[in-house]
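Incident review: delayed structure delivery

Summary: a single-chain prediction request sat in the queue longer than the usual turnaround. Root cause was a stuck worker, restarted by the on-call engineer. No data loss occurred. The affected request and its eventual output are reproduced below so the record is complete for anyone auditing the incident later.

Affected input:
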Amino acid sequence: MGSVGSALFSTIFIIFLIACTGYLAGNVKIKGISLGTAGVLIAALVFGIISSYVPFLGAVLGATNNLFSFVSNMGTSMFITTIGLIAGPKFFRTFNRKSLAYILMSVIVVLVAALVTIAVIRLSDDPNMDSSLAVGILTGALTTTPGFSAAREVALNETKVTAGYGIAYLFGVLGVVLFVQFIPRILKINIAKERETFVAANAIEIMEPNRKLILIDPYGVFPFALVIVLGSIIGSVNIPGINFSLGAAGGMLTAGLVIGHFGHIGPIDCRIRKETLNAFREFGLCIFLVGAGVPGGVNFIAYLRLSYFIYGALITLIPMLVGFIFARYVFKMSVFNNLGSITGGMTSTPALGALIATAGTEDVANAYAASYPVALFFVVLAARILVSVM
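Output delivered after worker restart:
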């Protein structure tokens, strides 16, 4: 086996070792609260940090760094596509005037995050704190890769953007994951009763296609792959003037919603069993966290400053708290719709997985799906504006 083959084999071993370790860690409960799949992120970051000090692991990571990027992108594609397909059958049928609240939630969350970022730049006495570092922290706190990419395109210092993103990303993920688990406990919500009410409120009759369809494969791999292909095309379309595109994730979510809604393309059956979608969703989330966490851990210690970590935590927590208050007392949302819209507004893929596990129903993905594209647009726009004017 050649050196490339050995590195590839080592990376495959490492990916699944991290997954095993992360699931074990995520399953540990402290007073009923657990990290769940987000435990994989902790394991991945720890491995990335260790690899900085262990030559063999560092060599493996260096030889296959692009592979970890591929793993992250593949995981994102699988997870987001699954969410679109799960939410699609009900998403458009339940989209009404109340759905405007989800859009406003996205605007509120991103606007508050941008204002906190501006305050960080203005109030910090750190000579290294500039717009490049601050926007990196912003995109990390909101765990948004498209926003991160947009910031790097216009930033004066790409290295600072990357450093800020890496420092804030950890709490950006864990903060939202824990938030959606703590809030129901703090409010003493009866999860079973809330779920029963929530599911009943979202219950609609899903019309099955009324003509004979062609089943390409019995497992749903073909329609799943087709959604990813179509989503990639949609995500690559650039809006002239503002230089904005949905990106691969936004495009796949859109394609998943549409195909999930209709259930077919022409005579081709595009329905996928719920059990299969759940497996795709969980596996996609897992490998996304591995692919994103390992490279993020490599330079984590080198760039880490307590003040930067605190700034990132504030940019994560304050928008969530403000958004939750608005959703609860102004928009009168149920707890699950409230938290679902927050995960979408924070563009937090792992938090949606945690919320689904907490709520015990995939219907919470509807609020996420309604909020996510709008939040994505405004995060990219905010990143560009902040870097350009600050």
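Verification: The chain has a mean pLDDT of 80.
Action items: add queue-age alerting; document worker restart procedure.
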